[in-house]
DNA sequence: ACTGGCACTCGCTACAGTCGAGTGCCAGGA
DNA sequence: TCCTGGCACTCGACTGTAGCGAGTGCCAGT
């Protein structure tokens, strides 16, 4: 059962009108606002077919049509082309991101920018440690039995962790530890690190071995296994636009989902290079987000990907515009990181 | 115009019932549920007085009474005593906070704990840099012209910032810089730092002066002036309890306010030692929060205060319970910090 | 294959009527 | 003087009815 060009045009018109007005769209209004060149009755027939195929539906018998998730999917895949950014948006992006002093700063500015431009909830993942390599490890004595371990990654991320030593540790041992871990680990990717870290202990001189064991277990635990990922969020207030019509009346599940770091990572963390990922309504694996859509992509310096970013909004969203904005922001951020 | 004991008892009963049921409370229901020892008619007379004095009001003519902000204020000040925590709550607090490995970890656990116990939005300020003193400053060369400055504060906070040097800087200069800044700044409070930092430049040897000037300006700018404060937030999903009845139908202003770091700091940042601060509805300086109440206090090791924490919820909240929980959590966190 | 016409559906709004919770007031009693 | 029972009144919430109108599906005609 093929859909001819006109039926596709009708679907496109329905999506565009519904996104713009937030109201079910009827056949009469449709022919008035779009140059379809046919009468309402014809459009009605097309609509009947589109409905049968599951692309649109009627909220109730005597109402207009509304796109289904499947309809949006078809729209995104075949009926829309990415809008070019307006010069104003371009300027906004540049103005917003220049002058960032810091990775933290870059991430915060980015997430706010995204929220502002798309008027939706924005999510930005910090550069993933798994995709970073070690630039430097620093050990700072805090007390006789405590060290602060500071790791600086090539992506600009800095992580620190308190290390509780089994026994008091003299200053020269700290120097030795520092030298050894840096020699062995600088330049390696953290995802490749576990065996190396393991090896550190075996290779350490007997006197240093207990200290090194503690240190390596902290390294493994904190930097590799446990919440290695960080996330920034902005624009939750945008969820309240469209006065509760979106999200079938309750923000609750959405807000709950947004509080879970794991969920957010799932949202934006799994990206292949230079792909835009659009998940519409039911396509979301997370139950709480079945009423929402997510547009996400990866970012990083040059062609490599170090993290993900994206936005979350109602299924009724301006996909072409949102996709364009997310892509553009991801590119700018990538360029910014490349400069460091 | 004094309010006799019975009128106060009536007010207390109204607040308690309204908080519990979320519905305007009438005179009949009141005498049934509380042992007031008088008839509904008498209660009605008392209510009339309370209303005249502005402690309660009628949403509409034939409805029961609802406390006003002023009524809650009187209730909090004179009619309630702080509920002792249930053993279950005590246990929850302990279980939640032991095993925190990190300042970050402590703050995150605390904010989630608070949100969970009070079932409201929780806000925790990281130990303020202005109230911390410097424990150690580390300079890590990133490239010939870039240093990573890492500051470790006695409160456990770690801040880092990239320093762009005016000229390539040799390794021994880095060592000198590190030694000098540590000698001069370790142990000082950051709020007292500006003149000291200024002095660093003047005292530096001529060769180091340009580098020191850059370093000191970064120190001043980042660590003292600019967003020195950090905030953690949790439980926004709790805003949706009480199905839009609280917050007069729109979460928008609340969510917007919660996105502004400045606003949050105002909420919980200005605390005097060991005081519970309760701001009810209109008492809030922030317009967006006129429909909400905030319960906050300071925390820190021993008697000193290093930061604030608190919760935000509907004016219709369980004040005694919330106050007790916030206070208890603040104490536990303080003790935890004291152990470091 | 498209179109105009027509009967039909059904949500929305307005309106009227009823119910009941709650009030204010008053006269009578401790 | 203060409290109480009684009573009339108010007004929101709910129910049922009716009319409107947007929108549809179907059909006969071009």
UniProtKB/TrEMBL annotation, chains A, B:
<comment type="similarity">
    <text>Belongs to the HrcA family.</text>
</comment>
<protein>
    <recommendedName>
        <fullName>Heat-inducible transcription repressor HrcA</fullName>
    </recommendedName>
</protein>
<dbReference type="GO" id="GO:0003700">
    <property type="term" value="F:DNA-binding transcription factor activity"/>
</dbReference>
<dbReference type="Pfam" id="PF08220">
    <property type="entry name" value="HTH_DeoR"/>
</dbReference>
<keyword id="KW-0346">Stress response</keyword>
<dbReference type="InterPro" id="IPR021153">
    <property type="entry name" value="HrcA_C"/>
</dbReference>
<dbReference type="InterPro" id="IPR029016">
    <property type="entry name" value="GAF-like_dom_sf"/>
</dbReference>
<dbReference type="InterPro" id="IPR002571">
    <property type="entry name" value="HrcA"/>
</dbReference>
<dbReference type="GO" id="GO:0045892">
    <property type="term" value="P:negative regulation of DNA-templated transcription"/>
</dbReference>
<dbReference type="Pfam" id="PF01628">
    <property type="entry name" value="HrcA"/>
</dbReference>
<dbReference type="InterPro" id="IPR036390">
    <property type="entry name" value="WH_DNA-bd_sf"/>
</dbReference>
<keyword id="KW-0678">Repressor</keyword>
<feature type="domain" description="HTH deoR-type">
    <location>
        <begin position="18"/>
        <end position="62"/>
    </location>
</feature>
<dbReference type="InterPro" id="IPR023120">
    <property type="entry name" value="WHTH_transcript_rep_HrcA_IDD"/>
</dbReference>
<dbReference type="InterPro" id="IPR001034">
    <property type="entry name" value="DeoR_HTH"/>
</dbReference>
<keyword id="KW-0805">Transcription regulation</keyword>
<comment type="function">
    <text>Negative regulator of class I heat shock genes (grpE-dnaK-dnaJ and groELS operons). Prevents heat-shock induction of these operons.</text>
</comment>
<feature type="domain" description="Heat-inducible transcription repressor HrcA C-terminal">
    <location>
        <begin position="104"/>
        <end position="323"/>
    </location>
</feature>
<keyword id="KW-0804">Transcription</keyword>
<dbReference type="InterPro" id="IPR036388">
    <property type="entry name" value="WH-like_DNA-bd_sf"/>
</dbReference>
<dbReference type="GO" id="GO:0003677">
    <property type="term" value="F:DNA binding"/>
</dbReference>
């Amino acid at each position: 059962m093929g859909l001819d060009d006109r039926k596709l045009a009708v679907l496109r018109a329905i999506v565009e009108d519904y996104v713009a007005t937030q109201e079910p769209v009827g056949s009469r209004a449709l022919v008035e606002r779009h140059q379809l060149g046919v009468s309402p009755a014809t459009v009605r027939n097309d609509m009947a077919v589109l409905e049968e195929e599951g692309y649109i539906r009627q909220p109730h018998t005597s109402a207009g049509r509304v796109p289904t998730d499947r309809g949006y999917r078809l729209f995104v895949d075949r009926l829309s082309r990415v809008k070019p950014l307006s010069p104003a948006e371009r300027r906004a992006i540049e103005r917003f991101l220049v002058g960032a002093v810091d990775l933290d700063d870059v991430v915060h500015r980015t997430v706010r920018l995204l929220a502002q431009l798309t008027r939706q909830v924005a999510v930005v993942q910090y550069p993933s440690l798994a995709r970073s390599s070690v630039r430097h490890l620093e050990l700072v004595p805090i007390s006789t039995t405590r060290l602060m371990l500071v790791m600086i990654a090539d992506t600009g991320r800095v992580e620190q962790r308190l290390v509780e030593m089994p026994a008091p540790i003299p200053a020269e041992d700290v120097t030795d530890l520092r030298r050894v871990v840096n020699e062995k680990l600088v330049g390696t990717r953290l995802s490749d690190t576990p065996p190396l870290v393991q090896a550190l202990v075996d290779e350490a001189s007997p006197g240093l071995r207990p200290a090194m064991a503690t240190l390596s277990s902290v390294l493994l635990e904190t930097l590799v296994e446990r919440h290695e990922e960080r996330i920034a969020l902005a624009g939750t207030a945008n969820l309240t636009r469209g006065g509760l019509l979106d999200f079938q009346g309750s923000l609750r599940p959405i807000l709950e989902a947004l509080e879970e770091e794991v969920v957010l990572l799932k949202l934006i963390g799994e990206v292949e290079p230079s792909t835009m990922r659009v998940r519409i309504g039911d396509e979301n694996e997370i139950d709480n987000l079945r009423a929402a859509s997510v547009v996400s992509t990866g970012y990083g310096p040059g062609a490599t990907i170090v993290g993900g970013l994206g936005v979350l909004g109602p299924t009724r969203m301006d996909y072409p515009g949102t996709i364009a904005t997310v892509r553009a922001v991801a590119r700018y951020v990538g360029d910014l990181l490349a400069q460091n």
